[in-house]
Amino acid sequence: MSRSQSNFKQQHEFEKRKTESKRIKEKYPGRFPVIVEKADRSDVSNTDKKKYLVPGEITFGQFVHFISKSINMSGEKAIFMFVDNALPPTGILMSQLYEDAKDEDGFLYFVYGAENTFGCQNMQCIVPPTRCLRLPNCTYNMIVF
Prior knowledge:
This protein has helices at 7-11, 14-27, 60-70, 94-101; strands at 31-38, 51-55, 77-82, 108-116, 120-121, 124-125, 143-144. It is α+β, with helices and mostly antiparallel strands. The protein has a domain at 7-72 and 81-112: Ubiquitin-like (UB roll). The strands form two sheets. It has a five-stranded mixed beta sheet with strand order 3-4-1-2-7. The radius of gyration is 16 Å and the shape is globular.
C-alpha cells in the first residue's frame, strides 16, 4: 500500500507546509499535525478531512479506530494505516510515532486502505457472534483543521 508522493505535498509547497506545521505545534503544544490520505488503489471511502491535530497521549490504535469511524467502514473490513510504507505497532503513542516518523516539513503522513478480514457481510456475521468483534464507541479529543 503505497503512494508515490502525498497529494498534500504536491498541492502545497515545502516552505508553506513547514511554516504551517511549526505554527500549529506552537499554538497547540502536545498535539501533532497529521495528514491522512487514501492509498491510490484502495476502494475504501475518503476521510472527511485530510489534516488532523492529534493528541500525543493517544495510541496509534486509537487513532486508527477514530479514522475508521470517520470513513464509515463496513463491519467486514479492517483499515490499515502506514507511515513510510510500514505498519506501526498499535500500542505506540502518537507522540512517539510523530518523533520517529515525521516528515522534514513537520507533518506526519499516513496512507490508509482496507481489506476484508472479519468475515461479516452487511452487518450479519457469517461466523459465530462471539468471534465477530466490534470495538467500543470512543470519543477522542482531536481537532480537525
